[in-house]
Please model this.
Amino acid sequence: MKIFWNGIGFPVPDDWEMTRIGKNRLCFQQGERPVVDVQWRRGSAPVDFPAFVEKWKRECRKKGDVLSPILLPKDMPQTADVHWNGFEWKNDVGNGIEILRHCHRCQTVTVFRWTVSSDVSNDPQKIWTVILPALAGFSDHETGSGIRFALYDIALTVPEDFHLERFAFHPGLFELQFRAERGNIRFLRWAAATELLRSHSLESLGERVCGKVGWSRIDHLSEDDARVGYPHPQGWFARILPSRNRSWCFIRYDRVADRILVVYYRGRTVHTDADILRFGRMFSVRPLCKSINHLCGTN
Model:
């Protein structure tokens, strides 16, 4: 399965488990063993990659790593926009390989800190059979439609001017919130929907997110029940949001996946019903890996 998160994407084996999620950091383990720690940053100014590598090495040494040079394999992914560097590291806890990647096109620098298991530490060929597929499938360029997020059982594409502000992954509830000059937008996913809908209506679940709402039904979505709601602003808030379409909530029940998806927007831009439906379709459920069923709220 390929994951996407805040500007990057790469393939991940089904038996890897995520142990840490940050705005620009993802960590994975296999069983009880750490596999890789991925960190990245994107800048608008050109990056002095050799200087960055030397600075990164100094930071590693400060943490107690002993570094050794390595020769990168000939079958490293090769493109005109990308430069690679790397070295071996070793400390009191373990050892592995640090791979640094710089893309000239988008000025993204990505660091992969691979931990090598003891059973393959003396077999370089086996080490690279794990590393190379992830590097070959790695991407840090956005699509024309926006920034992709695909993690666990959710898939989402947001316009490039929206920046990730906060996120939370709890059993049964996932939430991502984004901010742009034109407004804020929240995406929520509840599971399992059938259990929730035994004691709540679709509308009452939406009002948990955005308060009192006037709802209208969308009848032409073939597989899903969907509603669009327009919150009722009170007091001073009513004066700064005179148009109802500047604040809206789209809620959808995906019967096939047994999920409830919510998109809640508050901001300056007035959206038509077609715009709201387009935002709603940015958010979907994707096939689920068995190893993460417990987090996604399934049996």
